[in-house]
Design goal:
The chain has 83 residues and is mainly β. It has one helix at 31-40, and strands at residues 5-20, 52-60, 68-80. Helix 1 (31-40) links the parallel strand 1 (5-20) and strand 2.
Amino acid sequence: KETGGWVPPACAFICFHIYCTHPRDWDNTFTKPLQDVLVQIGVLAGDSCDELQGIVIPYKVSSKKEERTEIEIWYRQRFTPKV
């Protein structure tokens, strides 16, 4: 990284919205494989604590047809002023 100028995103925030007929506890969801795929295809730079923070929000739906997972990602851009 050069001194000054644009710095790539240091942190991303990811939110998994999981719609299920039987919602799981937040720590018992299968979001890690989804997160790994997002890193593999380049959507996320990495999944270390320095690069990624996130939450899982479960929703109860009434039918299997309504089940789905929605993923939101926000990137924090940091700009270093040139001196």
